[in-house]
Amino acid sequence: MLDLMSGFISELRNAGLPVSLTENLDAMEAIKHIPLENRDAFKYALGATLVKNNAHWRSFETVFEVYFSLRGPEYAIADDADAGDFWREMQEQLQSQDGDSRGAAGGAMDQMTPEEMIAMLMKALMAGDQALMRALARQAVQRFAGMEPGRPVGGTYYLYRTLRNLDLDSMLEKLMDASRDEVGGQLTPLEERLERDEHEHRIEQFKQEIEAEIRRRLVADRGAEAMAKTLRKPLPEDVEFMHASRDEMQGLKKALQPLTRKLAARLARKRKHERRGPLDFRSTVRHSLSYGGVPADPRFKYPRPAKPELMVVADISGSVAAFARFTLMLVYAIQGQFSKVRSFVFIDGIDEVTGFFKGTEDISEAIHKVNTEADVIWVDGHSDYGHAFEVFWEKYGRDVGPKTTVLLLGDARNNYHASQSWVIKEIRQKARHVYWLNPEPRSYWNTGDSIVGEYATHTDGVYECRNMRQLEAFVEKLA
Amino acid sequence: MAPRFESVQSVRDGLRKVNYLADDGIAGVAFLADRLGKPVLVEGPAGTGKTQLAKSIADMTGARLIRLQCYEGLDESKALYEWNYKKQLLRIQADRKSDSWSEIHDDIFGPDFLLTRPLLEAITADDPVVLLIDEVDRVEVETEALLLEILSEYQVSIPELGTITAKQVPLVFLTSNNTRELSEALKRRCLFLHVDYPDMDREKEIVLAKVEGISQNLADQIARIVRSIRQLDLKKAPSVSETLDWARTLVLLGIEHIEAEQAKETLHILLKYQTDIAKAAKELSVDK
Quick one: average pLDDT of A152-167? Predict the structure, then answer.
């Protein structure tokens, strides 16, 4: 057990969770009080002592599944004899529930035809029967995934194979039809919607069962350490913008909101708790009058740093779109910290999008509008920084003033067009600061058609912003 | 000291008796808090029953609840202890002539002149207590440090008096709405519990337990509608307390079966932003 726990904890640390020594000791202490057979209680005990941030829970869960998936009797991979018993039991349960005629086959789930299996799955989904769903997930994986020991294929491949055979997409429609039949005819739109949500939820559950089953089998085949490495999920703040999957994007979006709130609170506090300035002589003398001319109450000048004015110029072409989106979201979420925010987006043409954010409280909708409605294509829709900057300078250059901070977002992959870097030079002369944020890893800069170096000479700094953590650090510095 | 709880299940059952429906995580952490003698940091969206958890635990164990509401500007004279300055002055003036200096000095810094504030009170209590430190994320980072000694050692050091150690280890709950990152030092001393919106079945049970005179059918429908609404991308998802308010409203209106129309008319109880209400109304009535 000790071995297992230390492996588990070092894997958590590898995944980026900050687990301290005392927390480790607490976890050891905690599991003494928990019956080990109760897997859920065990998981919550470890979670309560080791994970102190809700955003890390998903990573923790993954590692936990890998390390402890094979423990506990009902989770062991049953060999055939056991499986037979299990199926028989299931079947009997099913029989007592609805007097299914196929029950006579007795433990014959292995011999079921795929059609029968799908019918059974549908029944399970209809009734929301967890145990049966789990059993079917196992059966489906065993039958359709075609897993072979030692085969160097990722879990997603098996998942795809299993799901393709089950055809879950049409399942939803079938389930909806069945619900309609049940009430005899028409559902009101509200009921329709609720039923759909319900079924979607169950299908999602079933998918997760399948995933868990595949993972269990892979762990059994390859061992926990190896699997933990391949399954390792970065924490939301470490996910790279440029390579985030759709799921990770969702996670990022969720993580953004509390993050901006914290950031805004921190910045406001920073502003408030600014250190004392020099003695304010006038004020001190004025207040000394109430003490008979004795300056008993010295007054100080508190520095009131001006809020910067911000102009965000973002490349929204395919590769860096996600990054631009997040930066815009972040900037607008804390726009109270700036005196004014204007935003521009470009691919090879440039367009001002400040208006999209005005009057709407829903930032994500505004971003959506930016992506669909902004007029950013000039010739062919391939990034042309040079032309975009030129137009920017022509149209909006006079709005750049000594209070303005200009933020340029993009990977500076210019498709070998002219760089027109003189624009940046001009901007810098008028503006307070010019920063460039690049979502690419530093080692890729200035390779291929990236000309970030050429622009960099005219800016006050180029920052690598691959993930939320780096972006947050930069924005905090800025405001 | 004898443990308060027998097992995780007993925590769950006990909480159920006082009308608090805990899931595995909540019951498990409460159980561990007792066994390990550690405070629990409860975090989660507003209105999911974080404060109620502490109240219910107190209720269940028959302990007294001592509550410290945190706010910006809270300091030790309001959280820990304060010297009763006026009483001290009186004491000095009462017998000016007799006592020697050291006698008075020892006297006026005695327990008689100490005003206990929630934290000290929780420590010195003879009867079983549950200490609730509410919305701990509202105090400044510097003030957080005040809590550290009491949370890890269950003691308070008063320079003039010495260290006061707890006679019994109280159950401590800290709640946080996560408006800022709490310090590592604080987190390390606590067990962490994230209370999220309940899943549909639990929500239904909560509605059934808390709202009088509600039918199974209606509770089921309410839970399902609320789940659908939570899936939308809203500024503020409906909390459990708002669900309960909504359920009570529907019961008062004598509605047995929710139609889209009625749902739309009462949505403002569930959602507090106009944009959210519009969005939810659109989603619920339009069949996609």
Answer: 72
